[in-house]
C-alpha cells in the first residue's frame, strides 16, 4: 500500500567544534524545522490537500539530506532510511496529483530502497509522445534539480539547460550555476552544443519504465563556461 510514512525516530544528535556562527545558526534553525515540516506535510496529505503538502514535504527532503551532510555543525544526523522516506513522501504526493514524471524522479533519487522500488511499481506505465517538448530533470542534490527545457519554435526545438552544483553549504549560501541553449530540427532526436573546446551531446529517447528522457554526454566541460563543478552529464527524465 503506497502511503506516506512518517519517520522521525531515526534522528541522532552529535556535537563538535563550530565556526561561522551565522551559517551554524541558520543551519540549526532549518534543521529544527524538519520535524514540523514532516508533521505538516503528513497532515495536509491525509486531508488530501496534496498541492499544499508538497511544500513541507519538499522542505523535509531537502533539509534532512542537507542537515545530515552538515551533521557536525547541525548537531543532527538522519539515516538513509529517514532521508529516502522524505523523498518518497514527495513522490507519493506528486503521484496523487497525477504528475507521474515528477513522482518517478523523486522516487529515483534512492533507487535501491525497497520502498522506492515498490512505489515505482505503483505508477502507471509512461506513454510515448510524438513530441519532445517538455521539462526534463536530473537530481542535483538536496532536492534541487538540473533542468533541460524543450520548446517548439517554428521548425525546430529550442533546448535550454540550467544546471546546479549543490555544494555542502549550498542551501544557505546558494549553488554554483551554468547554462546553455541550442536547437534541434523537429525530425531529429539528437542535438549538440559547442563553445570553444566544450561539446555537449544530447540524445532524446523513450524507455518503457522511465518514459521520455534526454541522455547527455559532455567533453571538455571546463571550457563550457559553467560555474565551478557544474556539469550536464547524465540522464534527465521528462516531468512536464
Instruction: Report the CATH C-level class of the largest domain.
Output: Mainly Alpha
The CATH topology of the largest domain is Serine Threonine Protein Phosphatase 5, Tetratricopeptide repeat
Helix content: 25-40%
Mean pLDDT: 91
Question: Uncertain runs with pLDDT below 50, 5 residues or more?
Answer: 1-20
Name the CATH homologous superfamily of the largest domain.
Tetratricopeptide repeat domain
Number of helices: 8
Taking all Cα atoms into account, the compactness measure Rg is 19 Å
Strand order of the largest sheet: 6-5-4-3-10-9-8-7
The CATH architecture of the largest domain would be Alpha Horseshoe
Instruction: Kindly state the number of beta strands.
Output: 10
Structural class: alpha+beta
Strand proportion, as a percent range, falls in: 25-35%
What's the domain count? 2
Element order: H for helix, E for strand = EHHHHEHHHEEEHEEEEE
Alpha-carbon distance between the termini? 26 Å
The major pleated sheet works out as: 8 strands, antiparallel
Overall shape: it is: globular
Keywords: Signal
Protein name: Tetratricopeptide repeat protein
List keywords for this structure.
single chain, 240 residues, alpha+beta, Serine Threonine Protein Phosphatase 5, Tetratricopeptide repeat, 2 domains, two-stranded antiparallel sheet, 8 helices, 10 strands, globular
Summarize the entry for a quick read:
The chain has 240 residues and is an alpha+beta fold. It has 8 helices and 10 strands.
Amino acid at each position: 500500500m503506497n502511503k506516506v510514512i512518517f519517520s522521525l525516530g531515526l534522528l541522532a544528535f552529535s556535537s563538535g567544534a563550530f565556526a561561522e556562527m551565522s551559517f551554524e545558526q541558520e543551519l540549526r534553525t532549518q534543521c529544527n524545522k524538519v520535524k514540523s515540516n514532516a508533521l505538516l506535510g503528513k497532515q495536509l496529505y491525509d486531508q488530501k490537500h496534496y498541492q499544499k503538502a508538497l511544500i513541507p514535504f519538499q522542505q523535509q527532503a531537502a533539509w534532512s539530506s542537507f542537515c545530515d551532510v552538515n551533521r557536525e555543525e547541525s548537531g543532527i544526523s538522519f539515516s538513509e532510511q529517514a532521508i529516502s522516506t522524505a523523498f518518497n513522501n514527495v513522490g507519493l504526493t506528486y503521484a496523487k496529483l497525477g504528475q507521474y514524471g515528477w513522482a518517478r524522479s523523486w522516487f529515483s533519487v534512492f533507487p535501491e530502497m525497497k520502498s522506492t522500488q515498490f512505489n515505482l511499481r505503483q505508477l502507471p506505465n509512461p506513454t510515448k509522445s510524438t513530441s519532445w517538448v517538455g521539462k526534463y530533470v536530473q537530481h542535483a542534490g538536496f532536492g534541487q534539480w538540473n533542468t533541460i527545457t524543450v520548446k517548439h519554435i517554428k521548425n525546430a526545438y529550442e533546448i535550454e539547460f540550467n544546471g546546479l552544483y549543490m555544494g555542502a553549504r549550498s542551501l544557505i549560501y546558494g549553488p554554483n550555476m551554468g547554462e546553455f541553449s541550442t536547437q534541434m530540427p523537429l525530425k531529429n532526436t539528437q542535438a549538440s552544443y559547442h563553445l570553444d573546446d566544450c561539446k555537449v551531446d544530447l540524445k532524446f529517447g523513450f524507455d518503457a519504465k522511465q518514459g521520455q528522457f534526454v541522455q547527455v554526454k559532455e567533453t571538455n566541460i571546463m571550457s563550457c563556461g559553467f560555474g565551478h563543478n557544474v556539469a550536464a552529464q547524465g540522464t534527465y527524465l521528462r516531468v512536464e
